[in-house]
Amino acid sequence: AAEAWSSGGFDAEIVPVEIQTRKGSVTVKEDEEYSKFNPAKAKTLKPVFSKDGTVTAANASPVNDGASAVILMTKEEADQRGIKPLAEILSYGDAATEPIDFPIAPSMAAPIALQRAGLAAKDIDFWEINEAFSSVVLANQKLLDIPLEKINVKGGAVSLGHPIGCSGCRILVTLIHVLSSGQTGCAAICNGGGAASAMIIKKL
């Protein structure tokens, strides 16, 4: 995430927002979470769910505020308005498992979306899998047999933040900007209660 920010990797998908504070006007144009990471402190943190667990505050997404938006329309509407679309939605899929197993739900939703698009996991150029915990990405990467270098290439929610209600749109917007014209991508996210959603897009 730090490398993506420093190289301008998020510039095309960020809209600066000016807010008024007690100290005057402040322009918010960059995520803050990634800059707070302390590698030395991360090694000392204890597991949060069980004493022999692996999830700590360092590999879990923090609580954040955020906003994200997209404009959806049919090809016919876009043509009529003279708008050049960024991407095309090829398919989507939803699936669910037992609530306690929610971290692996994206691995159930993605195959449904892939089948509907007539594609296989190997056909996907890049993936965005929401990182509520680092273990979520690692589990789904293993279950779907995806090369790690194709997943969350600009960083995940552990380093960028996971504002509830925003993250699904955020990973989709990031995926659109990661892809080159003609490439396909999959965005997948847990959405509560053991369920997950996935979407396959093609960059135009």
Itemize the secondary structure elements and their pairings.
Elements lengths: L1 H5 L10 E5 L2 E5 L10 H4 L32 H7 L5 E10 L9 H12 L8 E4 L4 H11 L12 H4 L6 H12 L5 E9 L2 E9 L1
Parallel strand pairs: 4-5
Antiparallel strand pairs: 1-2, 3-6, 5-6
What would you note in describing this structure?
The chain has 204 residues and is an alpha+beta fold. The chain is built from 7 helices and 6 strands; from the N terminus they run αββααβαβαααββ. The mean pLDDT is 91.
Shape: globular
- Ends distance: 25 Å
| Percent helix | 25-40%
Strand composition percent:
15-25%
Mean pLDDT across every amino acid position: 91
Q: Which class do the helix and strand fractions yield?
A: alpha+beta
Q: Helix segment count?
A: 7
The low-confidence runs, each spanning 5 or more residues with pLDDT under 50, are none
Question: Can you give me a brief rundown of this structure?
Answer:
This protein is an alpha+beta fold and 204 residues long.
Task: For this entry, give a set of tags.
21% strand, single chain, globular, 7 helices, 204 residues, 4-stranded mixed β-sheet, two-stranded antiparallel sheet, alpha+beta
